[in-house]
Write a structure and sequence with these properties.
about 300 residues, alpha/beta, 8-stranded parallel beta barrel, 14 helices, about 50% helix, pentose shunt, EC 2.2.1.2, transaldolase activity, Transaldolase_AS, Transaldolase_1
Length: about 300
């Protein structure tokens, strides 16, 4: 078997893309989107009609038009995968719990209007303190969530306490920060992104948390291979293809019986201090929210009425 097929034996593989051709070819179980991926999707010919229709059906409400387009992309992807699609709440709402809840409810309603039940959707929310609180409420109401832009252990601990269905720690962006800050490259198990996900995975398993750990934002195959066995990994089409083209043994390195740290419940003040003490996480969370916000604005600029 190639390495992609081996990986699928002990990790759920998720496609980090809105490219329908790539999803059909590589056959992931789930898929994720975000404002950056939706911006790319909007330039693809097979989504042009969806972009036009989303604007026409929104009576000039640009935010609603973007949500409709997100759902349209999600519905097309769901035709090709057996699992779920993660659809993201506008990153500009990341510090407003009630606004995130309102947007999440609208996304669920739009999917239901398209005949898609909430059992096939994960609402994707930034892992701010306010985002964690929104996820806690949604989970109690039976809406499952994907907490994204996760860089610190404090974020991971708070998400587990809140009962989030899934977290997306960003391996590649953690690696990028340390590579730049330290002026050196990292390989294998010394990769700070790999170490972060490994620590979180072991903490969750040792303390019986049901929250799914889904490594995200990979830069190379080595990072993926070092996290083989993680609950889920969301991988770009290019790296999925490289895995599919790669032969050789791919052993499982993360296992549920791993030893992790004792449970520590995280209060708001502890969360904010511990996250603040992590310079990498503080910078990358803020940068990630800004980047998604800018891409959201660019997507809005592509709508017919904004051109």
């Amino acid at each position: 078997m190639n390495k992609l097929e081996q990986l699928k034996h002990y990790t759920t593989v998720v496609a980090d893309t809105g490219d329908l051709e790539a999803i059909a070819r590589l056959k992931p179980y789930d898929a994720t989107t975000n404002p950056s991926l939706l911006l790319k999707a909007a330039s693809l010919p097979n989504y042009e009609e969806h972009l036009q229709a989303s604007f026409n059906e929104s009576n000039g409400d640009i935010g609603l038009a973007c949500d409709k387009f997100s759902v349209a992309v999600g519905c097309e992807i769901l035709k090709l995968i057996p699992g779920r699609i993660s659809t993201e709440v506008d990153a500009r709402l990341s510090f407003d719990t009630q606004a995130m809840l309102s947007r999440a409810y609208r996304l669920i309603d739009l999917y239901e209007s398209a005949g898609i039940g909430k059992d096939r959707i994960l609402i994707k929310i930034a892992s701010t303190w306010e985002g964690v609180r929104a996820a806690e409420i949604l989970e109690r109401e039976g809406v499952q969530t994907n907490l994204t832009l996760l860089f610190s252990f404090a974020q991971a601990a708070a998400c587990a306490d809140a009962g989030a269905f899934l977290i997306s720690p960003f391996v590649g962006r953690i690696y990028d920060w340390y590579k730049k800050a330290e002026g050196r490259d990292y390989q294998g198990a010394e990769d700070p992104g790999v170490q972060s996900v490994t620590r979180i995975y072991q903490y969750y398993k040792a303390n019986g948390f049901n929250t799914v750990v889904m490594g995200a934002s990979f830069r190379n195959l080595n990072q993926i291979e070092k996290l083989a066995g993680c609950d889920r990994l969301t991988i770009s089409p290019d790296l999925l293809q490289q895995l599919s083209d790669s032969e050789g043994n791919l052993p499982r390195l993360l296992k549920q019986e791993g030893i992790g740290e004792p449970r520590e419940e995280v209060s708001e003040s502890a969360f904010r201090w511990q996250h603040n003490e992590d310079a990498m996480a503080t910078e990358k969370l803020a940068e990630g929210i800004r980047q998604f916000a800018r891409d959201q604005e660019k997507l809005e600029g592509l709508l017919p009425g904004k051109r």
